[in-house]
Specification:
This protein is α/β, with parallel strands linked by helices. Helix content is 36%, strand content 22%. The strands form two sheets. The chain has an eight-stranded mixed β-sheet. It is globular. The chain starts with 5 loop residues before the first strand and ends with a helix.
Length: 361
């Protein structure tokens, strides 16, 4: 692909395909959106008049003019489409969640290896302003030894919506929707946990799927709490980090998704700005206001383009994808059994995670 644009086919033009992938592909230097598989040809045509629309994912995968297939279809289709695209000689990017199970994730990773192609996961929230700010303070050592890290995403939707994410279908529910980002961020900061404790529940009377969770990632010296709810009005702090030298609080969440919904061009001036400062409560009782850096979710697609050109490593390695899926699956089982469970990763997979982390630092 050196010296020419990466030709991209997008499967799915629902909320994720229309809001995130289409605009980001179009705004990425060295990428060209060639075709979209969608049942909404008029909508695609309005947004991208020069892009061909095909009726089915199979039609798109069968094309011989694509280098990368981006899968933004419902979660239960991810494995079938990813493996078909890999076997057809395409590189693949899958929107989160990568797969519905660790076994499916392993199968897709092995298919990519056998086909000699790349597979990655859309972990754009590694470049959220809130996460970048919190990570920078943790990495600086100013908080001292970390004792407790909390990540919260709460919404106020007391009545389930009409979409498939609120329907009783595989891959629906709040845990599959939010956990891939929250777990990925936690693992980037602290590595693989030793065990997982979880409660995943349905708290809205009309809900068919989980809409509340509290999951604890257990580490030898600290704990990570991931919390989500669909019935919180007013919100809570996005991140709270407590260490031996004080606590860091980040109240407001990244705004890039809101700006994409408004039709802003990703990467445009001010797109990732975040004027909600972080508060550092020091051990001596003083409080310091720390600026939040701008977010830059476009960095994912730039990194992926560089990886496909052979210039940089995959921005989300297969080892990282397997690690996140292991936590997601273990939390579900821990909640069902009411037990704390270890991650079902092999020694080879754990070693692969460690090698990936070393390569990226």
């Amino acid at each position: 692909m050196a010296g020419s644009d990466i030709r991209v086919g997008l499967i799915g033009y629902g909320f994720v395909g229309k809001t995130f992938h289409g605009p980001m592909i179009a705004a990425t230097s060295g990428m060209t959106l060639v075709a979209v598989a969608s049942s909404r040809p008029r909508e695609v045509g309005r947004d991208y008049p020069d892009v061909e629309v095909v009726p089915t994912p199979e039609d798109l995968i069968a094309r011989d003019d694509l280098d990368l297939v981006v899968i933004a279809s419902p979660n239960e289709t991810h494995r079938l489409l990813a493996e078909a695209a890999l076997r057809s000689g395409k590189n693949v990017l899958v929107d989160k969640p990568f797969m519905l199970s660790l076994s499916d994730a392993r199968s897709v990773v092995e298919t990519a290896r056998l086909c000699g192609k790349s597979v990655s996961v859309f972990q754009n929230r590694r470049w959220d302003s809130d996460f970048l700010g919190v990570k920078s303070v943790i990495d600086s050592g100013r908080l001292g030894r970390i004792a407790h890290f909390e990540s919260h995403i709460e919404k106020f939707d007391p009545v389930p919506g009409p979409g498939w994410r609120d329907a009783f279908v595989p891959g629906a529910g709040m845990w599959f929707d939010l956990a891939p980002h929250m777990v990925d961020q936690a693992l980037l900061l602290f590595g693989l946990p030793t065990a997982v404790t979880a409660e995943i529940a349905v708290i809205r009377p009309e809900s068919e799927v989980d809409d509340w969770f509290e999951v604890i990632l257990r580490y030898p010296t600290h704990r990570v709490t991931l919390h989500g709810s669909m019935v919180v009005a007013g919100g809570t702090s996005r991140f709270s980090v407590h260490g031996a030298a004080g606590s860091l609080i980040k109240h407001g969440a990244d705004r890039q998704e809101d700006r994409l919904k408004q039709g802003c061009i990703p990467g445009s001036p001010g797109f990732g700005d975040d004027d909600d400062a972080m508060m550092f409560h020091k051990s001596d009782g003083e409080t310091e206001t720390l600026p939040t850096p701008p977010g830059d979710q476009m960095a994912f697609y730039r990194a992926l383009a560089a990886a496909l050109r052979g210039e940089k490593p995959n921005p989300v390695s297969t080892n990282q994808a397997l690690g996140v899926m292991a936590v997601i699956e273990t939390a579900i089982e821990a909640s069902k059994q009411g037990r704390t469970l270890p991650l079902p990763l092999s020694a080879e997979e754990r070693a692969g995670w460690a090698r990936t982390e070393e390569a990226l630092t």
